Amino acid sequence: MSKARYFEAVPAIDVEEFRKVVMSRRSIRRFDPSPLPDDVLNDCLDMALLAPNSSNLQPWEFHVVRTEALRKQLAVACLNQNAARTAQVLVVVVARTETWQEHCDLMLESWPEETVPRIVDNYYRKLARIHYRQGPLNLFGWGKRAVAAIAGLRRPMPRGPFSQADMNVWAVKTVALAAENFMLALRAHGFDSCPMEGFDEHRVRKVIELPRDGLVAMIIACGKRASDGVYHPRIRFARERFVKEY
Ligand SMILES: Cc1cc2nc3c(=O)[nH]c(=O)nc-3n(C[C@H](O)[C@H](O)[C@H](O)COP(=O)(O)O)c2cc1C
């Protein structure tokens, strides 16, 4: 007998409310001194953690810096940008490239049904461990690259990740989606953000303790926008430049 399929109810959504959130999110370069309540911040972090992510391996970490002393030090590491200097909270968004194995185990342990489907079990026990493993000196990665090149002549094959650089892209790509969830959630709560890649990672690591395999994808300045917090009207190039239809 085939297993009953899972069904999840979908709430009604007002697209205009969503549009307001998207349209009013701007990169804020100056925040006013009003505090960002913990419950708002925590709700936004929870929504960030719901972002889609590669193989559900959740290679992210959010390091929340609230205390003034640490914020000041972090702002210096953020090249003293106004957004960092005036933010009420700074969130260091980190991409991990070495948690995937532990998270494969967690996926099997956390499966929300009585039995883990065979295909899922096979994926997290075997396939994912081949797919994401690169091995010492990247030797396993090179092996996978060779297999993909040869087998790929006859059938579609994954063309990566085959190196640490590929793993970095893999992790950062997913983490950026969580960052966007987080920033949109802040906006929906009436708060604002500025994502920043203008920082000195070496100095960031001196301010907060980060895991060795953690890449700082971005640092998000958070707070309530000051009246002069947006520097100019939004600029986007013509849609035709970016949207290709087939
Ligand atoms: C990954 C990333 C890094 C960014 N780094 C900085 C930064 O260091 N400083 C800054 O003021 N803005 C930074 N920004 C904000 C962009 O400049 C901004 O998103 C862009 O100009 C578009 O403006 P908007 O966000 O208001 O639509 C960054 C944005 C992203 C996505």
Question: What separation lies between the terminal Cα atoms?
Answer: 41 Å
Structure ligands: flavin mononucleotide
Shape by Cα distribution: globular
Work out the oligomeric state of the chains in this entry. single chain
The major pleated sheet works out as:
5 strands, antiparallel
The helix content, as a percent range, equals 40-55%
Q: Approximately what portion of the residues adopt beta-strand conformation?
A: 5-15%
CATH class of the largest domain: Alpha Beta
Count of DSSP H/I helices:
9
Q: Which runs of at least 5 residues are low in confidence (pLDDT < 50)? A: none
> CATH homologous superfamily of the largest domain, by name?
NADH Oxidase
Please write the string of helix (H) and strand (E) elements. Answer: HEHEHHEHHHHEHE
Number of domains: 2
Structural class: alpha+beta
Mean pLDDT: 97
CATH architectural name of the largest domain: 3-Layer(aba) Sandwich
| CATH-defined topology of the largest domain | NADH Oxidase
Q: What can you see in these coordinates?
A:
With 246 residues, the chain is of the alpha+beta class. The protein has two domains: 27-97 and 165-229, NADH Oxidase; 101-161, no CATH class. The chain has helices spanning 15-24, 38-48, 68-77, 82-86, 100-110, 118-131, 139-151, 164-188, 201-207; strands spanning 31-32, 60-65, 89-96, 192-196, 214-225. Bound molecules: flavin mononucleotide. Flavin mononucleotide binds at residues 26-27, 29, 81, 83, 194-198, 218, 234. Flavin mononucleotide (FMN) binds next to strand 4.
